Amino acid sequence: MADIRTSSFNRSDRIILGGSAAAVVLAGATRYLGGGSVLAFVCSALAVTLLAALVGRSVEQLGDRFGPGATGVLQSALGNLPELFIALFALKAGLVVVVQAALIGSILANLLLVLGLCFVVGGLKHGTQKLGSERARGITVLMLLSVSALLLPSMASYVHAPAAAHEGRLSLIVSIILLLLFCLTLPASLKRGSSRLSTEMTSHQDAPRWSLVLAVSLLAVAALTAAFVSDWFVHALEPAMAALHISDAFAGLVIVAIAGNAIENVVGMQLAARNQSEYAFSVVVNSPLQIALVLAPLLVILSQLFGLAPLTLVFTPMLVVSVTVAVLITAFITVDGESNWIEGIALIAVYAIIATAFWWG
Predict the structure, then answer these.
(1) What does the pLDDT look like over 123-142, one tens digit per residue?
(2) Range of the domain at 72
(3) CA atoms within 13 A on the CB side of 271
(4) What pTM value is reported for the model?
(5) Number of domains comprising the chain
(6) CATH number, domain containing residue 315
């Protein structure tokens, strides 16, 4: 009986699985059988979103086998897989501006939109919520440092420093250093987790549980399928942007970023609604941290190794200002280890203003 229960699905599991399968079929049909660029784009975006949710659900089921710290890192890392695939195919298509905007947009979406939604949902239902002051401070400081390092090549370009003439090489060196920083801080991240966070994660495990084989198998299938769907997504992206009159910057900053952050969108709000605020904060903020430490540096290196359109860490001034504002605001709001719905509304408002400013490019 126990074995049957650990391998069965609850209602939400069936919805995610069925929705993912249907969305992938629709995305494939519109990609190869036609139906218009906008419809193909919408179907592939929906498929990417649902596959990301399936990846997140599979990681959740592995949670108590690895512990709270490891699960937070694993969930953020695998949650960024769709973004990695989309970025690689976009670089192959020469959409460097879209990729740069998507990297910054993912950080903005998590720190402003998703975190804001979590604060609003949790605050309206439970009042002021605790984030774990020591944990919030540690992860916020690391995020400030990593994002600052990510932006240094841009600053060198703006002030016309001698290094500006070597932006490709500088970006590569910074990327290697950031990846090394991630490797050095990984052991601490794996252990990191308060007793409150451990309790929240344990209570989040809803019966029935999946077996280890089932969770790993679905994780592998979802990740592999996401690679194919990401190719379809990028194939439909340019025609859809032209049809809808959307700029490259807005498409990357808002559309691609939100589609690739489905896990944080859904899981974060669910956890906040259950008053599991520290776990929600961990899931949401770990994602932009790994974008700065892993995803962006990895894409810089892979773009050169695979002969794709070269990606550098020299971002436009507006992108740099936007992400700097987002990181500073988030650090200021969360440093006290508490959150409320008013702070959430403010974060969402800042995100809406930034997104609007990029509508024209």
Answers:
(1) 998 888 888 767 677 778 88
(2) 2-357
(3) 30
(4) 0.85
(5) 1
(6) 1.20.1420.30
